[in-house]
Specification:
0% strand; mainly alpha; 8 helices
Amino acid sequence: MEKVQGEMEIERWERSEEISDAEKKVIQETWSRVYANCEDVGVSILIRFFVNFPSAKQYFSQFKHMEDPLEMERSLQLRKHARRVMGAINTVVENLNDSEKVSSVLALVGKAHALKHKVEPIYFKKLTGVMLEVIAEEYANDFTPEAHGAWTKMKTLIYTHVTAAYKEDAPGAGGGSSAQGTEVPPDT
């Protein structure tokens, strides 16, 4: 049976490729420049995410009704969440050589979003894609083809580890109900 392009893309997203030592170094070097502007970059990522995927705002009572990117940029709650997102990514980047630590951090993020916040897993794919776009644009001089390849593996690693919590929570996997398989509201 032949796969269509979309199915191949999904399959590629579902498995994490090994990040080589050279790629880890590229990710860490690039990230050190990004993290120097942690809050601003994080805010840029979240604003683009919410502008491109407005249905994602449904999970944030503090700013779900904000439409104006400038209003979002001034939101203290959005800035706080941006710092938390960037902090989690920083912990992952700092510990790329410790796969257990990476798995642990991303499992905590996944469980909180699956169980407590009930966020649909597709939003992590969208968010990591936006993260890659923003970093590539804002740090174009550092974002060589080699860096892009390494960061593509990094976004897949984040997505697969975070969404593994949704699979663990699936019925029959020892958990309760799962957010996996539910419909994502259309973006307006």
